[in-house]
Each structure stands twice: as C-alpha cells, then as structure tokens.
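Homework help thread (please don't just give me the answer)

Our assignment gives two proteins as sequence + structure token strings and asks us to describe the second one. The first is just a warm-up. Here they are:
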Amino acid sequence: MIQERSILKVADNSGAKMVRCFRILGGSKRRYARIGDVVIASVRTAEPRKQIKKKDIVNILIVRQKEAYRRKDGSYVRFSDNAAVIIDKDKKEPKATRIFGPVPREIKEMGYDTIASLAEELV
C-alpha cells in the first residue's frame, strides 16, 4: 500500500535514488496505490550528472511493495522494499535503460512489456 508522502526506492538507472509520492492517479478520492499503478512523485535524492535531477516531478510505476499482493490463483507475493520505475508520461515506456531487482509477472500482463523484458528477474 503506497499512499501520499510514501518514500519509494527507484529501481532503475535514470539517476533518481529515492522519490516521494504526492498524488495517486485514478480518481480524486483514491487513497492507496498497489503494484502496477501509476503515481506522481518528486525526486528526493539523485545521482549527480544524470538524466533525472533532485526536485523533478516524475510519473512512476510501482513494481514492488512490502505488503503481500494477492494473485488470481490465490497465492501471495511480497517484497522486501517499496520500489518504482520512472516512466514516460504518455507512453508505457521506462526512461531508463536498466531495471534492478525482481519484478512481478503481473507487470507484463498489465501491458508494460518493456519493463518486464529489462528486469533482472520476473517473480
């Protein structure tokens, strides 16, 4: 469960390290975001001389969450951290060229094929 003011780790090489969620897309009263949801966030820490800078406003796709995520077959998957990937505003494409750590296979089913193919491991 990601909500406003949640701090997330960035799981790609775009230059951002940590982001803070400040708007969840999908309705005015929507409170929580889960795996596969798009969120608007601001960059809190970033690497120097990279594409994304501190204080930039970015759209992110949530790829990992600490809370258990229920699959359609009844099983659950949970990760050790909350992580996201920075994506383009219009397309379902990542801004980075590499994605670190495991990504659930539901990401591919949601139409983010590029992110699934760049990921180290599909869980």
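The one we have to describe:
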Amino acid sequence: MNLSTQNPDLCSKCQLTDVQEFLTRFPIFSGAPAGVVNLFGYLSKKEEYKKGQSILEEGKNCDRLFLILSGKVAIFQYYNERRFHLQLLSGDGINYFGELALLAEFKWFFSAEAWTDVELISISREAFSKVMERYPESYQSMVRKIINVRIHRFVDQSSYLLDHISPEAWREYPEEEE
C-alpha cells in the first residue's frame, strides 16, 4: 500500500523527520538545539538533478547550501579556458557544498554538476537568516561551524590539487630567466 496515497500528511511528516535526522549528522547542525534543526528541516528543499545536469555555475550569484542525499557531484573550476576537476563528492557520507552562501552574497567561485543522478537537500541564505533571527543564541556557533567546514573543504581540495600537480611545480624556486 502506498503511504502517500493513504495519508499525504503522514508521508510529509516522515520525510521531514528523515531530513531532520540527516541534518543532525552534518557538522554545522550537530549539537544544535532541536528547534533549530527542526526549522532548518522544514525550510529545506529537496532537489533532484539528472546525470550531467548543471547544479550551479561559476560566476553566478550564490544563494544556498547543498547537502548530498544520494549520487555524486563533480566540483570544478575553469582556468585559462580549461576545466579543472577539484573534487568528486558522494552521498555515501556527509557531503556538501556551498556552505559560505549561508553567510554572504557573492558569485560562485566553482561549478557543480551531477556526475550521476543526484538527490540534494538545499538550505537558502534566506532560510538560514530566518532561523537565526528566531534563535539568535545559536548564530555565533553556527557561523563558527560553517567557517570550520569551509576550512576543512579547502584543505581537502588543496590536498587533491597537490596530489595531482605537475612535477614542474615541485621546484622550490622558479628558474630565473637569463
């Protein structure tokens, strides 16, 4: 029997509970008061992308954090008209991108594309602001956690790039031209 056809409200409540449980495993929301997590779960959106579909584009305005429920997302950047792969994020663990969009308005400095079919949970900057207005005592802790996950992501991306750097870049000092 299909639960959603029998009682659509019950199905929505189950999905909301699943999202809230998922959020509590993410470092930004872990340890947050239940009311904060519940409200983020309520204000979040589920998004689906097909393999090869663009999720966000470098240079466009950013407005939300993405958490990967399932599938894989390629993170890349264009430099000198070449596409450089930065990371492949999977829904197998707790993976995310766009966390800085919760704190400030800027243009994306990378692109993201569905490497496989992907299910994401997104939380907009507007939703983040609404929750923080209602729970101002959690703001400082949330900002600190967002900065920490961004630093962790930066270290991961830097390590990936250093692992794949060309031997010419290993020189201590550039050769002087005569």
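TA reply:
I won't write it for you, but here's a hint about the kind of observation we're looking for: Residues 139-163 form the longest helix (25 residues).
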